[in-house]
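S2.1 Query sequence (Endonuclease V)
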Amino acid sequence: MKISQRHAWTLSVEEAIAIQEQMQTEVITSDQLQQPVQYVAGVDMGFEADGTISRAAVAVLSFPELELQETSLARRPTSFPYIPGFLSFREIPAVLDALEKIKITPDLILCDGQGIAHPRRFGIACHLGIIVDIPTIGVAKSLLVGKHQELPDTRGSWQPLTHKGEIVGAVLRTRVGVKPVYVSSGHRISLPTAIDYVLRCTPKYRLPETTRIADKLASDR
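Output structure tokens follow.
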């Protein structure tokens, strides 16, 4: 993939907020997917040397078969501290390096993090989607902002996630008897479509196959 850098990555928190607020205006939360979707990708991160080295992994799978087609791995020095709400500035630089190595351009990317379910409506899935101009979904393992009603313990059940009077995502049960995931639009996809694709990418486990494979590549295990 050819990627155009939008801004520097060594920034102050104030500069990062300004970028989030500026780029958030470009986020599209309606469906603009290439049809049919033939390839889905997952991106995930690991860290080495006490967090000083970022290790990003990309896994590209066929869709709807979910068969692994391609992987890539990239390392670079970590240039931004861990601060909730600013995950993208810490992780995306290495993710972009890994994406540049792949030969198959995915039609949809599932991110291990938030989309618009974010204090400034600009989580890592939004940030990545804007930069690479590919539809993205945030599939987070934990809640960052918002409230929701109790969720039934049946696969496919979901409840709206609301924050400051706005629906910003969904709490989705992908497997009976396990914790839900938090789904939100990243870029160029609506929430109902995002929920559908997350479920179709999650046939067996709590997390999408894209994320599970990328996590194994990115981790130290």
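The helical segments are 13-23, 87-101, 124-132, 191-200, 209-218. The chain has a mean pLDDT of 95.
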